[in-house]
UniProtKB/TrEMBL annotation:
The protein's name in its UniProt record: Hydrolase, alpha/beta hydrolase fold family protein
Domain HTH luxR-type: 194-251
A GO term, aspect molecular function: hydrolase activity
UniProtKB keywords: Hydrolase
Length: 572
């Protein structure tokens, strides 16, 4: 490649300015890989290094603009104009940035901001609560922390990680320090507008936020304490909280940040536990809370399926579906250099935490490698294993049958992994800005059944919603997982001793049916089924039937598409 190759170089910098068109860059660089000298020729490294140099400069420029956009969204005018001390904390609870009010007022206990950026919190319980929020152990919602020993309250907003790099990507939590009379109390009208509560409940909640005492609030309203307790209990049920403290926290938090740009939220709470090494592991639960526990893992990208679609059926079948969030997604702490085989202890820790012994595991797509390795390395972890459209080890891949986009990525990766990472960073920005455009391009290379899923407005909206929710710690985890799939797993899958149910679509154009059959042939005690005309996203059509066979439930109703899937004989 010559430096005057204007088409390729121009496309690189054009994509940095307009990342929505990243697929065109992918196509251009793929074409370039066919014209450059082979790896074993003397000039090959020079050509690659020149291209990498241009890509690195383009990514730096894109990251700078990305950082400005994210900073504008994060620190909008509301944050800047708020009169209270504001702190931006990194992972170590070090103050990265603060406003003028923080520098002027946080000079002594109970909250002291030291010149080197260290934050000294005199109340040990308050400090531990703040650390829990900053570690994501308390979830991603706005939280109000109040000291029992000093007149100080902390309003904490966990921040979605930016993929831009630099300072903005290190921000974990924004904290406002509210003291005594400076705490803002939401009006009854605003509370009623925000929450589905009655006028009487909003008046009582307003006073409870202002005074903090239920008896005094009841007296000011000239109602009995019994009536006040009944109203508070009703409001707690409507807001799905378990205590008066949580109720006040939600009310106060919304009063201060309701005009902030909305982040990705979920009506299903993301639960968390802290592992022995200090990492946070999170999970979602669906169905019957007292039902039969079933573990599940979702796809590469952490966006499929949306289990809310199956909530009623789970309850009817008495199933408690536990979706484990892999490290780097959602609130689960990322693990650098993680391999598929490293996840087994985390699953074991969650089972102990939930007091579950040998549950079934049902894994989809990119969750398959983690489930397979865990079953091989910890024989007593599951009592059975289900795989649906699973990713396969690299030695089973039919690389010549990939869809065009994934084939181009693979071609670039094999030319030089650095090319893949750099183009991937531009691609992620494009996907975040215009996810509909990406899925529209992807659909063109998939089978008709998959095109129907991506062409369904409701399913596409759910996919994008869950994708944004999953990438709370940034979308770079997708690149990490893709790289993880390009080398051996270093686990002997023949050691799996539990029965395996494995379903795959015959028209899957990302993981071919031949790849799936090759993996199935290497697994002991496997029941394999293939489905004509079905592809990568067949999960929405077969999930009930798949779980029914895996768990030996009663026969489900016909699939959402109206077609019952016949039993197919396994060739193994």
């Amino acid at each position: 490649m010559q430096d005057d190759n204007d088409d390729l170089i121009g496309k690189i910098y054009e994509t940095a300015l307009s990342p929505d068109d990243w697929v065109e860059l992918l196509d251009t660089i793929t074409g370039w890989t066919y014209t450059t000298p082979p790896k074993d020729t003397p000039d090959a490294p020079v050509h690659v290094e020149r291209l990498i140099g241009h890509l690195e400069r383009a990514v730096r420029g894109s990251s700078y603009m990305h950082a400005l956009e994210d900073r504008t969204q994060l620190l909008n005018t509301m944050y800047d104009r708020m009169p209270w001390p504001m702190l931006m904390l990194d992972q170590e609870m070090h103050v990265m940035e603060c406003n003028l009010a923080a520098r002027q007022t946080l000079t002594r206990e109970p909250i002291t901001l030291l010149p080197d950026g260290q934050l000294r919190v005199a109340d040990r319980e308050l400090k531990q609560s703040l650390k829990r929020v900053n570690d994501r152990a308390g979830g991603r919602h706005t939280q109000l922390l109040t000291s029992r020993h000093a007149a100080v309250t902390l309003l904490c907003l966990p921040v979605k990680k930016s993929d831009a790099g630099g300072t903005i990507s290190r921000v974990r939590t924004i904290v406002w320090v509210l003291a005594g009379q400076n705490v803002v109390t939401p009006s009854p009208e605003s509370l009623k507008a925000i929450f589905p509560i009655t006028h009487a409940e909003s008046r009582l909640l307003h006073l409870l936020c202002k005074i903090g005492n239920l008896n005094q609030s009841a007296a000011l309203l000239s109602i009995s304490v019994h009536t006040a307790r009944a109203q508070i209990k009703s409001a707690m049920a409507k807001l799905d909280v378990n205590s008066q403290v949580q109720l006040v926290s939600q009310a106060m938090g919304h009063a201060l940040v309701q005009t902030a740009p909305p982040g990705a939220t979920s009506p299903i709470p993301e639960r968390t536990m802290t592992l022995t090494d200090g990492r946070v592991l999170s999970w979602f639960e669906y169905g019957d809370p007292t039902g039969r526990p079933v573990l599940t893992l979702d796809n590469l990208g952490g966006a499929l399926p949306d289990h809310r679609l199956f909530e009623t059926w789970y309850r009817e079948q008495g199933l408690r579906m536990i979706l484990i969030v892999r490290p780097g997604y959602g609130l689960s702490t990322a693990r650098p250099e993680m391999e598929f085989r490293d996840f087994s202890p985390d699953i074991r820790a969650l089972c102990r935490h939930l007091d579950i012994e040998r549950p079934p595991m049902a894994a989809y797509c990119g969750g398959g490698p983690y489930a397979l390795c865990s079953a091989a390395m910890d024989p007593d972890l599951f009592d059975r294993l289900g795989l649906l459209s699973s990713t396969v080890p690299i030695e089973h891949f039919e690389l010549d049958k990939l869809d065009p986009i994934h084939a181009m990525f693979l071609r670039i990766f094999r030319k030089d992994p650095r090319l893949f990472v750099l183009v991937g960073r531009l691609a992620l920005r494009g996907m975040q800005r215009s996810p509909e455009k990406y899925f529209s391009r992807l659909a063109k290379s998939l089978c008709p059944e998959d095109q129907a899923v991506l062409g369904n407005p409701d399913l596409l909206a759910r996919l994008i919603e869950r994708m944004k929710l999953s990438h709370f710690q940034g979308a770079r985890i997708i690149i990490d997982e893709y790289l993880r799939m390009q080398h051996p797993w270093y686990v002997d899958l023949s050691q799996i001793s539990v029965p395996v149910t494995y379903w795959h679509g015959e028209d899957d154009r990302i993981i071919s049916i031949g790849s799936a059959r090759s993996l199935a042939a290497s697994l002991p005690n496997v029941s394999f089924r293939s489905f004509p005309d079905q592809g990568r996203f067949m999960i929405y059509k077969v999930w009930k039937a798949f779980l029914t066979e895996l768990l030996e439930l009663s026969s489900p109703e016909e699939s959402p598409g109206g077609t019952a899937f016949p039993a197919l004989t396994s060739p193994f």
